[in-house]
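C-alpha cells as discussed.
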C-alpha cells in the first residue's frame, strides 16, 4: 500500500514538472483561482483555468467579437480581486467601461490603452505581460504569428501575468504558441423566469485547443454574477459566483 502511494506521488510530481516546462501555472502561488467556470474547468490539466499563460480567442465576425469581449470580462473578474489591475490594449475600443460591473469587474481596475498601429499594440502587449504588477492583459489584435505568440508566452512564464489575445476578423487561423484557443459565439438570451425580453447574455463557448487537455463546447449564460449552464435551452445549472460587485 505504501509503495502504491509512493508511486502515485512520483507520477503526480512528474506531471507537475512536465506541465511547468510547458508553461502551465494554476495560479500565482498555491491558491487556486476560482473563475466560476464549473464543468469547463474539467477540460484543463489540474481542473483549473491556467493562469500565467496566454489564451487566444478568435472572432470571425463582429458579433462574435462582442460576445468574446464580454466573456473575457467575466474571466477578468476572478483575476482582479483585491483591486488588482489589468490592462486592455487595442485600436478600436468598443467597450463601455461603466458596463463592466455587470460582468463582475470594477471599471476602475481596468486600464485602457488605445493605439493607432497594430505593431504598437503588439509591442505594448508584450511589455505589459512582463509587468508582474498586473494580474492580466487583454490585447485586441488582428494577426499574430507563431514567433510573436512565442515571445508573449515566454514573457508570461517569467512574470506570471495571464494574457488574453483577442483576434478579431483574422485572415488566417494559424498555429500559435498560446496554451488555449477559444471561439465564443453569441446565443439568444434566455430569461430564467420565462418572461419576454432580451434575457441574460448567453454564449456558445468553444474550447478548440488546449494543451494537454480536452477541447469541448458548452452553452453558458451570465446572470446574477455567475455562469449558469444551459441544458435544452431551458434548464440552468448554477455555479459558484465569481464575485459580487458593490
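Sequence:
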Amino acid at each position: 500500500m505504501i509503495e502504491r502511494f509512493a508511486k502515485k506521488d512520483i507520477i503526480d510530481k512528474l506531471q507537475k514538472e512536465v506541465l511547468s516546462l510547458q508553461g502551465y501555472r494554476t495560479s500565482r502561488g498555491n491558491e487556486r483561482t476560482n473563475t466560476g467556470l464549473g464543468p469547463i474547468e474539467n477540460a484543463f490539466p489540474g481542473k483549473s483555468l491556467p493562469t500565467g499563460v496566454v489564451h487566444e480567442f478568435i472572432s470571425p465576425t463582429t458579433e462574435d467579437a462582442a460576445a468574446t469581449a464580454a466573456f473575457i470580462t467575466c474571466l477578468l473578474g476572478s483575476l482582479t480581486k483585491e483591486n488588482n489591475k489589468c490592462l486592455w490594449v487595442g485600436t478600436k475600443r468598443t467597450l463601455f467601461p461603466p458596463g463592466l460591473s455587470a460582468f463582475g469587474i470594477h471599471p476602475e481596475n481596468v486600464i485602457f490603452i488605445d493605439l493607432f498601429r497594430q505593431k504598437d499594440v503588439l509591442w505594448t502587449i508584450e511589455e505589459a505581460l512582463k509587468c508582474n504588477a498586473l494580474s492580466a492583459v487583454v490585447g485586441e489584435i488582428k494577426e499574430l504569428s507563431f514567433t510573436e505568440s512565442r515571445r508573449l508566452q515566454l514573457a508570461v512564464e517569467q512574470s506570471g501575468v495571464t494574457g488574453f489575445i483577442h483576434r478579431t476578423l483574422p485572415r488566417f487561423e494559424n498555429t500559435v504558441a498560446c496554451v488555449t484557443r477559444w471561439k465564443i459565439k453569441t446565443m439568444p438570451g434566455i430569461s430564467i423566469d420565462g418572461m419576454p425580453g432580451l434575457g441574460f447574455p448567453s454564449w456558445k463557448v468553444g474550447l478548440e485547443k488546449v494543451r494537454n487537455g480536452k477541447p469541448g463546447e458548452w452553452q453558458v449564460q451570465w446572470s446574477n454574477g455567475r455562469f449558469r449552464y444551459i441544458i435544452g435551452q431551458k434548464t440552468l445549472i448554477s455555479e459558484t459566483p465569481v464575485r459580487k460587485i458593490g
